[in-house]
Amino acid sequence: MNRVIAVYHKELLAYFRSPIAYFVVAVFLVGTGYFFTYNMFLSGSASMDETFRNMGILILTLLPLVSMRLFSGEYSGRTMELLVTLPLKPWEIVLGKFLGAVTILLLMTAGTFIDLVPLYLFGNPQTTTIVAGYIGFILLGMACIAVGQFFSALTQNQIVAALITVPVLLSFWFIGHLQNFQASYALRSLFGYLSFALHFADFVQGLIRSEAVLFYLIVSAIALTLNTSYLQWRR
Asked: Over the stretch 183-206, which tens digit does the pLDDT of each residue have?
């Protein structure tokens, strides 16, 4: 576990030594603040429902900028060979980098808490619904990071990694719409189960369903396992 923590610390230092983390966090908070202000003061919706949905879309497009450098940055910096020859197991490298990126996600999430101040001052929100929404948001973000990290390991170019990750994540988000074009119940169920948006909608409505929690955890686990297997193969 100490070796995982060492990789984790290295990743955090790399993030805050570059403008990427500051840029992503700033854009996310400005975007979230705009959507919250619009939904509450212009649309008159004294809840976080629409804001959470907007946050979901934002995170799909911004987290690839966080995950793209996890391994592609090692390739371009010519440190990947050194990393894989260190006395670190592949899963320790993958987990340490993943936790570093998740920390950025948690900082982004914490920054949105300021929106709750006017919400509680001018509205009467349901705290349990808000908590459920944040849990779903973090789980969604973790799945996005894991997928992006896997694609980062497959290419030496950070931009290419991001450009691959964004359409893949958007496909997972919008795949639920294909249900309307399927006559087969099995296909409708499959597309519905694979939809990031439909599972996230449960959390936004205040429902913490075990099926939705497991879905995001399974997606994260599969992506991290593939990432680990690829690193093992490279060795």
From this structure: 677 777 788 788 898 899 999 998
